[in-house]
Design goal:
Two copies of one chain form a homodimer. With 340 residues, chain A is α/β, with parallel strands linked by helices. The radius of gyration of chain A is 19 Å and the shape is globular. In chain A, helix 1 packs antiparallel against helix 4 and helix 3 packs across helix 4. In chain A, helix 4 links the parallel strand 2 and strand 3. Chains A and B meet through helix 7, helix 9 and helix 11 of A and helix 7, helix 9 and helix 11 of B.
């Protein structure tokens, strides 16, 4: 079985975006902005949006299950306030739940959180619990920068985030550390802000001792860990200068990387420096890069090809494609029985 | 000859830091803050600070010349105002000039710029000209984020920067795109902000057509290009989605990467994906990482070892260690005659 742990619902019916645009327009009228409004999308619309895009590509590429969440760039936590973010997150998560209910063998849900700059992350606990307990979601996307490129909230290692981590541990669900759209003109969303978010998060974790306080907390750094594997020597060296333990002991019992790296040399490096137990297969499809690489004739984001080109033992291959995902997303077994 | 294009004067006599601290303290008293103050450091102090640190390591590692600039983290463009930044830059650049005068065969100067958030970069032209014309400096460090981690000024592709680029082209000196210290608690300076700055700058360049306007402008992205080579497929794919030319045509006539990547797999990747003509040898020594890698027994930042472990032809080796530096820093020939 091949599990892709990083897919966003980027092909949702256009009514979702219309809902969001109305919500944003309503922010100019405070009385309207308190109303959740309505979103009407039929099951047939959902089926079509999935079967002609995500599911079609899964079948073509030979992957079985996608751990599926709302569009990351669309989370837009910097827009409006906590009520805006709650309404929007609920609608997005409800839609993911409907996808997972319509295609229970192919999709398992991960939720968007109703984060807001300056509002304690504990505020997101009710929506997390709703999605995990009522919908059977198995994780969440945690935005380390709800301000959208201005980085105004405290680092991930600050006590600011602790009540939320306590809930993650209690529910035994991991968080993928994933920023949303950039509203800072300096940062291209998928090419700048996403990769910087990954790099920043990992470096924050180096400087602190978060996993002494939360030994069973699990965080996934997407996009192959940002710049981290390429600069693994720098990060090992900085940790050493800071008198921290070796990174494998300091972080790698709790931190995992996905394989959203869109060329063979990048994947080769990832597997050379990061232990195979810490790598989870993912493609971020349909997402950041949609074209075909003229150098290979295949889609840039068809990361399965790169992983299959590695010389992995059958055991390691199974870890990357299935076993590690089941270990990190421990609730996955309730949704998709193991293939063996 | 081996030219290291990226060295900062991180071991300057302590009087320099005392000067800076007084300057910062004086900001509380506006009348004092307008005074440049005095900095008294003897030639013997400079000799000692260089011979026992930078030059000692150069000799031990077998490098000949360092293109040398003030401490990057120390630039601190977010502190005070344009006058603060001008006084501080002048003092730092004067000190680099003295190093280069005392050790003319081993050091060639690159200047710090008196940037200030919200102040047009054109304001830096007089100090650039002073350093190039009076001191014979061969380049500058250009901070893409003078705010120190809040990214408040326009992207490098904005017309905001154009008058400064015109002067760079006129003088035929390149700029290394290098941030300074982070004052944002989210970003560790050398592990987060530096790498993000590199990644961000390159992605800004992808989205625009800066080199159509400045076909002879030369920019160096340090620290091995941040995350860029590791995610080369992503960047090629994003450029393709944006209908930009192939990156080699779009950017690689004007953009260069250094070799400040502190482990062999990272250097291997850099040379696999980036053309050898675009790679300049550098170590960033004495700098971001000061320890010895227990996996190799050598200093993390002894990047010459990693480059020498590559299977480069003698011609390519010479490009990386000397030829490319001479091409990018065209004024270097006035200071250091070619070895052949």
């Amino acid at each position: 079985m091949i599990i892709d742990i990083h897919g966003h619902y980027t092909t949702a019916p256009k009514e979702l975006e219309a809902y969001r645009q109305k919500q944003i327009a309503d922010l100019k009228e405070p009385s309207h902005a308190r109303s959740k409004g309505t979103l009407s999308i039929s099951d047939d619309q959902i089926r079509e949006s999935i079967e002609k895009a995500q599911l079609k590509l899964q079948r073509e590429r030979g992957t079985d299950v996608t751990i599926f969440s709302p569009r990351a760039a669309g989370m837009g936590h910097h827009i409006g306030d906590a009520t805006t973010s709650l309404h929007w997150s609920q609608e997005c998560n409800d839609l993911i739940h409907r996808v997972c209910t319509l295609f229970p063998k192919s999709f398992v849900g991960v939720c968007q959180l109703p984060q807001t700059p300056g509002v304690p992350p504990a505020n997101c606990i009710p929506e997390l619990e709703r999605c995990v307990k009522e919908y059977g979601f198995i994780g969440c996307n945690l935005n380390p920068d709800p301000s959208g490129g201005y980085w105004k909230d405290p680092p991930l290692t600050d006590k600011w985030w602790y009540p939320f981590y306590e809930k993650l541990v209690e529910l035994d669900v991991p968080a993928m550390v994933h920023v949303s759209m950039s509203c800072n003109p300096n940062f291209h969303t998928t090419g700048g802000h996403y990769i910087n978010g990954d790099t920043t998060a990992f470096m924050q974790l180096i400087t602190a001792d978060l996993f002494k306080d939360f030994p069973s907390l699990k965080l996934i750094i997407p996009h192959g860990g940002g710049a981290v594997p390429y600069h693994w020597g720098r990060y090992r060296g900085i940790a050493q200068d800071l008198k921290k333990p070796l990174l494998k002991d300091h972080l790698l019992n709790n931190v995992f990387f996905d394989t959203c790296v869109y060329h063979q040399p990048g994947i080769d490096l990832l597997f050379k420096v990061i232990p195979v137990d810490n790598i989870l297969f993912a493609s971020e499809m349909v997402g950041a890069v949609r074209g075909i690489d003229p150098e290979t004739g295949s889609y840039y984001d068809d990361t399965k090809r790169y992983v299959e080109a590695l010389k992995l033992s059958p055991e390691d291959r199974n870890k990357v494609f299935e076993g590690n995902a089941r270990r990190v997303y421990s609730r996955l077994k309730n949704k998709i029985p193991a293939s063996r």
